[in-house]
Hints:
Layout: H1 20-47, E1 59-65, E2 68-74, H2 80-87, E3 106-109, E4 112-115, E5 128-130, H3 143-150, H4 160-173, H5 179-185, H6 196-210
Parallel strand pairs: 1-5
Antiparallel strand pairs: 1-2, 3-4, 3-5
Amino acid sequence: MRSRKEPEPEPREPRAGVSRRGFIRGVGISGAVGAGVLEAETQAPAQRPAAKVIGPGPVAITLQVNGKPYPVTVEPRTTLLDTLRDRLGLTGAKKVCDRGACGSCTVLIGGKAVYACNIFAVEAQGKEIQTIEGLTADAKPHPIVKAFVENDAQQCGYCTTGFVMTTKAFLDKNPNPTFEQVEEGLAGNLCRCGTYMGLRRAVLQAAKEMKGGSHA
């Protein structure tokens, strides 16, 4: 009896993708690369210069405020606002929202308006700080302060000093602003009483009075 001849199997096409040999080879290469990166990351901290660490206890610092040095000891977590008010007795900057949202605590650092509640006192070392007390120390009122009074640019008073300091920084940078520029320049400060029209008129008046003269 003649046996039936089995059909020959059809040749298989190579499967797409990575072969086992290629996979093992790839793992070896990636492992070597990963080891090199890990080694570099492990060695990197030893090559970096050691960072200066202060705290966690109180540290002695000196703040330059309104042209005078103020030695003070504070914890590193203490804000500039709390240091000015509670340690130095400079209460012109108001503590209202305490989260950098209203601008009532605005002071100038290096001529730039900043929220004193958003910066640590230790960060302000070596920088010139100006508060509202620095504008009202003389017997003659500063043109900005005078303009605020004459234009009824204040009601409850909580936001007033922040607006005055913001105006000082704004006019030092833009001494001849338009009404629209004033509106934009004061956008970082909030007046809950809504005296915005008086505030803007005060800034324009102060700009006119400050022209041709130097007012620190």
